[in-house]
Design goal:
4 helices; about 75% helix
């Protein structure tokens, strides 16, 4: 299985399955995928601050920040399930 398959397994198949233990590969691929997804959101946020005239966050920053917070809220339970 590749990284995306492990991620789908954790998020969709074992969304709130707190029984048993996760395999090492399942845990680490889930963590790696979350880091990569986070980078996809953080890079535009940082670039919007760097590219602004007075180094203040603009609309793009808040848009990606809101999407990132919704994503983090959506994967909170699977993260607790795979880490527990």
């Amino acid at each position: 299985m590749n990284m995306i398959d492990w991620y789908k397994k954790v998020v969709f198949e074992n969304y709130a399955n707190f029984s048993g233990r996760a395999q090492r590969s399942e845990y680490w691929y889930f963590v790696l995928c979350n880091i990569l997804i986070g980078l996809i959101f953080y890079i535009p946020m940082i670039m919007s601050i760097v590219g602004s005239e007075n180094n203040e966050p603009g609309t793009v920053f808040y848009l990606f920040y809101g999407i990132l917070m919704l994503y983090n809220l959506a994967i909170l339970i699977p993260t607790l399930a795979v880490a527990g």
